[in-house]
């Protein structure tokens, strides 16, 4: 199944010319969010991470599923997952988890054709 998903992703990129969104935000924060995700979910692949202030949204997939995860920076430089979904999220759902609306909107920008958020 893993080879099939990988092949499908490569085929989609080659035929459509689209690629996954790039990381956005300070490199140290992006790396810290990736590390937090990999520590908690070692089989999860992270495509992109967007960081705005103390919040991050990342695009992930594993062998069976994929989606987006919302992270918050807590004490010091520690990042904790506060929500994840198997599909599209929205700014109001982020707000229910304490993300200011203005930051939610910024987290949703720049994903290219991935479009993780409904605004």
> Kindly, what is the distance between the CA atoms of the first and last residues, rounded to a whole number of angstroms?
33 Å
Q: Write the element-wise H/E pattern from the N-terminal end onward.
A: HHEEEEEHHE
The oligomerization state is single chain
Most strands sheet: 4 strands, antiparallel
Q: What count of domains describes the coordinates?
A: 1
If you compute it from the alpha carbons, what radius of gyration comes out, rounded to the nearest whole angstrom? 14 Å
Give the integer mean of the pLDDT values: 80
Helix content: 25-40%
Order of neighbouring strands in the sheet with most strands = 1-2-3-4
| Morphology | globular
List the defining traits of the structure above.
alpha+beta; disordered N terminus; 4 helices; two-stranded parallel sheet
Describe the 3D structure:
With 119 residues, this protein is α+β, with helices and mostly antiparallel strands. The protein has one domain (20-118). It has helices spanning 2-16, 27-40, 91-96, 101-107; strands at 45-52, 55-61, 66-73, 79-85, 89-90, 117-118. A four-stranded antiparallel sheet has the order 1-2-3-4. A two-stranded parallel ribbon has the order 5-6. The model is unreliable at 1-19 (pLDDT under 50).
């Amino acid at each position: 199944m893993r080879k099939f998903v990988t092949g499908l992703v490569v085929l989609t990129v080659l035929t459509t010319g689209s690629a996954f969104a790039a990381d956005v935000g300070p490199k140290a924060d992006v790396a810290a969010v990736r590390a937090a995700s990999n520590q908690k979910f070692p089989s999860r692949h992270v495509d992109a991470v967007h960081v705005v202030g103390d919040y991050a949204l990342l695009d992930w997939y594993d062998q069976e599923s994929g989606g987006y995860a919302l992270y918050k920076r807590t004490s010091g430089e520690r990042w904790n997952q506060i929500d994840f979904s198997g599909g599209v999220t929205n700014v109001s759902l982020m707000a229910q988890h304490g993300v200011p609306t203005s930051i939610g909107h910024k987290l949703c920008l720049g994903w290219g054709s991935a479009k993780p958020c409904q605004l």
